[in-house]
Amino acid sequence: MSNLKMNKNMKKITIVLATLAVIGSVASCEKALDVKNPNNQTTADFGYTESDLNEALIACYNRIRLEGTFARVGYTLDAVRGDEVWNSSQQWYLPYDNLNSNGQIDIGDQWPWRDNFHIVNRCNLVLSRIAGMETISENILDIQCQALFLRGLAYYNLATYYQTVPLFTDYAQYSSIESMYAENASQDEVFDQIEKDFSTAMMTLPTRDKGGEWANGRATSGAAAGYYARALMFRHKYDEALVVLKDIIAGKYGHYELMRDYGDNFREGTQYENNAESLFEVQFLDYGMGGSDEEWTPVNISTNATQGHAVESNYGSQELGSWGDLAASPWLYNLFKAERCTDGTLDPRLYWTIVTYEPEYSAYTGTTNAAYPNGGDPRSNVVYQQEITRTPRSNNTQGGMSIAKFTNARNNIYQSIVTGLHCGVNLRLMRYSDVLLRAAECINELQGPTDEAIEYINIVRRRAGLADLNLADFAGNADKLFEQIANVERPKEFGCENGRGIDLIRWGFFYDSGRLDQIKQHSCYMLDTAEGSPVSTQELTTSTASDYSYKYYTPGFEYFPIFQGIRNANKNIHGNSANTNTDNGPEFIQKYGKVRPVTAL
User: What CATH number does the domain containing 51 carry?
Assistant: First the structure.
């Protein structure tokens, strides 16, 4: 073969090879284009691995730390709905203190709805993904049951705030306008689902005794059991609730006990938070650890986002830097003062509940300060570098006693209050003392006063240093023991915490004239408008008070109205009892019988 012919053949071969190389290159490029970007996932391709599901679960936990859930108004709205807290700012929370919102106010009519449905939607993504799996590992089962607990918690909040809400249990419901714009389910239908979610989680989740994350904030079987009992008691299923409560007391769902120091339930720091008394609490970063981005948004996805709550901004004294929105009622203050400990001192729960000046505090706290213990300490409030030997005002122009729980008033960690989502004290949503007092209540409802019921109450009283109750004082009188539990033991143990408003509804106090008059008396307050005047702590009646919380109450408004904007957007949603001015009393009496009458102690 001549060199010329050989060169021509080699040229052809080179062209062919080059062509094949180009084709191969194009093919490989097309293949590369099919690779999905892991940083640009969608709900269509996310959530099918254990790693994805765990990330999604963390996102579910994150939603309980929004303003409408427990970072601010979702927590405090029920406190102000109760009879031991009033709206000292006379704005913002006033329609939820008076229970007369017009249904067009974002703060209460919309925010808890919005943010609790954030939880529901995210939990449904997790649960729907797991439902489609052929095999479920132990870790994925734990993820599933945590999502059930969180969904149950969200619906518990929604049903006790808004009465009737849409019920979503499958992520596929969001795939079409028809199914997404669902109508309200009845409150009983919602509670059926709440009970199902909590009971499933209760039977499957590990206990806090397993340690690690299970003892440091994860939802456990004990958390689910406690909330399951709460849900059962809301519908007066006392026999079923008592079984669960006794199992918690017996240690079936992990070891729980009362902390020796009541104040440990309201302190910040790893040595206090997630302690042996806590069944479930919302985790917030310690003060100064969080960022500052996106503070007042419902999204808050910045890596530098705030990681605290604003409950202190509502509860703290305006004199000391807070907003001064909420204050403790004089009734609660005088309830504490009415009974001394066995050693003659004040009930220590007063110190941790209400910010007041009590001269005798110096004898057993080492300070005579009303707030920010030891005002001379350089860590204390920079405005007051001295002891405050008077009760500071909750609100500068309206007066009132500010609330100490979950604030720096008794922690003394930082120099001055920074309003916003910066307080790092974990909000304890359910404590073991609640289990004990609920067990006593269930026994009394089923059997009347018994030694066992009295002992459960006395365990809580002994921690506070109070004398034991005697069965002889209540024998055969279930109404009297109920009065003791409802209007002495529970308000002193849980005063100004989230839950009292829900209790008033489940007990039927809005549906009986005697009980309604009673909580009106409890909610009386005095507006201390004169500059420099001392904060009023006097016992009040509706005739001597400046005003009282339920003066303008209309039947049906014990629930918050569904926001008008939500009803406009979804024509399938009908109004609840607050939207329609419907009295829930007749239905309550038909279901559960007469409300226990007011009884002298």
Answer: 1.25.40.390
